[in-house]
Amino acid sequence: MPTAPLVVAFDVNETLSDLSALGARFAAVGAPEHLAPLWFGSVLRDGFALTAAGSQERFAVLAEHSARVVLSGVPLTRGLDDAVQHLMTGFMELDVHPDVPAGVRRLRRAGVRLVTFSNGSAAVARALLERAGLEAEFESLLSVEQAGAWKPAPTSYAYAAAACDVAPEEVMLVAVHPWDVDGAARAGLRTAWVNRDAAPYPGYLVAPELTVASVTELADALGP
Q: From residue 181, how far is each of 111, 143, 153 by CA, in Å?
């Protein structure tokens, strides 16, 4: 059994939050549900591109503009502005995955320090955790908005470790995204990949230290 890290840093969007409800939001404005993952992927792509170019933009700004692009040419059942607002509101009202509450609470009972570290805003993470009754379990809600670069830039992970006043190797980044796991590993953090869909891990990325099917399984793997 691996030793527990001093700090577990959870990615937020899709790792803690369940994005599956966004499909219904797209359908409600007359768009195909399959545009939801395309929209989310477009936001990440453009955030990565700006970081690679030495620039940065807030997740919310990219999300709104990407929604307008994805909905372009779609025969919507309401005006574009209204449709985009409906999608953005839905994103702000997501719930956590069912496995998150028990797993988070077990990690805290084991004495592990918990933080979130997101490419989105701390406000989104706070609202998500408040709805789940979990905000008190986390000591900090960290965002790349203060890091100066989106994950997976190495400086973003260095910021997270410094904000927790620990060395990078004392932090375990937990994410559903292999690119996030890879970036954290290359920056010297420990890593855990939450693979809820039993998908293969890309062989060209640095493999995670732990692969688990849920946050509760992560708590079991790290032990008391």
A: 23, 17, 12
Cα–Cα distance for residue pair 153/157, rounded to 1 Å: 7
DSSP assignment of 68-104: HHHTTT---SS-HHHHHHHHHHHHHT--B-TTHHHHH
pLDDT digits (tens, 9 = 90+) for 151-205: 999 999 999 999 999 999 999 999 999 999 999 999 999 999 999 999 999 999 9
- In the three-class reduction of DSSP (H, G, I as helix; E, B as strand; rest coil), residue 172 is classed as strand
Where do the structural domains in the chain lie, given as residue ranges? 7-18+94-222, 19-92
- The model's pLDDT over 142-165, given as tens digits with 9 standing for 90+, comes to 999 999 999 999 999 999 999 999
83 — pLDDT class (breaks 50, 70, 90): very high
Q: Which helix (H) or strand (E) holds 174?
A: strand 171-175
Question: Could you read off the pLDDT of 43-55 as tens digits, one per residue?
Answer: 999 999 999 999 9
pTM over 0.85: yes
Taking the CB of residue 42, how many other CB atoms lie within 10 A of it? Answer: 18
Instruction: Evaluate the CA torsion angle 102, 105, 111, 113 in order and state its sign.
Output: positive
**What pLDDT was estimated at residue 1?**
63
The confidence score (pLDDT) of residue 161 equals 98
Superfamily the domain 7-18+94-222 falls into: HAD superfamily/HAD-like (3.40.50.1000)
In this structure, what are the phi and psi dihedrals at residue 212, rounded to the nearest 5 degrees? -130, 160
Q: What is the CATH number of domain 19-92?
A: 1.10.150.240
